[in-house]
Design a protein that fits this description.
Length: 336
């Protein structure tokens, strides 16, 4: 259960991409992916099939925008997917892509300075090749770094987010399987408790599965929070008050754990209806999807840190607000 072969494929894949250029990246992607590689990316990339489609939609434009790109992972893990009965092996990494933001990307004006794009990536490895990928990245976080914040003031803190407090997230070698089992148990205990009604206070209810000094590293537009009381104040209450109507959990496609770390993604995890005010949006008649990644660090049987990725651009686009098009229109209208 060391997943050495699967991890080696993904690490070689990452290294080859960082060494590629916009013109060569399609061939590089083909080296370690299956012919029908299914790639899921956040808005505006969505689902792509095959190395050429992935290169043309995301990697070639991104490499053209970011000079001297580095992959700076904070978490690297692998495991068997609980959702399909532990039959498939997935390798997950999370961190930042760092480069010099030298050319426009998706209409975001470049700065010529260091920029860091938060990412979380899940890769299903089968027969020595990557057959399926879910790649989440925080584009609004990049926009804020470039001085083009698309959101009203957020309730949490905006940060270039660090990795785990323990600095033990890069699990390139084998791990104790018992620790991964315990981490998955802690994640599932939290998930199973989310829908339960309790006479306890919300803080007491959360304390069953979270440490009091939890850190919730939320996406740009929401921000990061620290401790259970501030998490409730700065994220849970605003989310509940605006999105509680018509809330539906759709399930996950992958959920794994290794060592003290674990995570999951869905496509889409949640369907919610905005009753007004959330992220500056007025109330709308239609429900909208939230594609979400959660990465966790467990400690002593409870959850201590949580990194969140939400495809907020897709969520807002489903409600009629194209954030990227609005940004491009504003840039065009302000030119002399």
């Amino acid at each position: 259960m060391d997943y050495a072969a699967e991890k080696a494929v993904v690490r070689a894949h990452h290294a080859a991409i960082m060494a590629a250029g916009p013109q060569s990246v399609a061939d590089v992607l083909a080296e370690r992916t299956s012919p029908d590689w299914h790639w899921r990316g956040m808005h505006p990339f969505h689902e792509q099939v095959g190395h050429r489609a992935v290169a043309e939609s995301f990697w070639a434009p991104f490499l053209a925008s970011m000079s001297r790109l580095q992959n700076r992972p904070d978490i690297f893990m692998a495991g068997r997917n609980e959702i399909d009965g532990f039959s498939s092996v997935w390798v997950t990494s999370m961190g930042h892509f760092m480069g010099l933001f030298d050319q426009p990307f998706l209409g975001i004006a470049p700065t010529g300075r260091i920029a860091m794009l938060r990412y979380a990536e899940f890769n299903r490895v089968e027969n020595g090749r990557i057959a399926e990928t879910a790649m989440f990245f925080d584009i609004p976080h990049l926009m804020i770094q470039a001085g083009q914040n698309p959101f009203p003031p957020q309730t949490g803190a905006h940060l270039v987010q660090p990795g785990p407090a323990t600095h033990e997230g890069l699990m390139y070698g084998p791990q104790d399987p018992a620790r991964g089992t315990e981490t998955l148990r802690a994640i599932n205990a939290m998930l199973n408790g989310m829908g339960q009604k309790s006479e306890e206070s919300y803080a007491a209810h959360l304390a069953h599965t979270w440490h009091d000094d939890m850190i919730w590293w939320g996406p740009a537009g929401i921000g990061a929070t620290y401790t259970i009381p501030r998490y409730i104040e700065q994220h849970a209450i605003p989310f509940r008050d605006a999105l509680n109507e018509g809330y539906r959990f759709n399930g996950h496609l992958c959920r794994i754990a290794e060592g003290d770390f674990g995570g999951f993604f869905g496509w889409a995890n949640l369907t919610v209806r905005n009753s007004g005010g959330y992220l500056g949006m007025t109330a709308g008649p239609d429900a909208a999807d939230m594609r979400v990644v959660d990465i966790y660090r467990a400690q002593d049987g409870k959850l201590a840190e949580n990194w969140i990725f939400i495809d907020l651009l897709h969520y807002l686009n489903m409600q009629g607000l194209d954030v990227l098009e609005r940004m491009r229109s504003l840039r065009h209208s302000t030119r002399p």
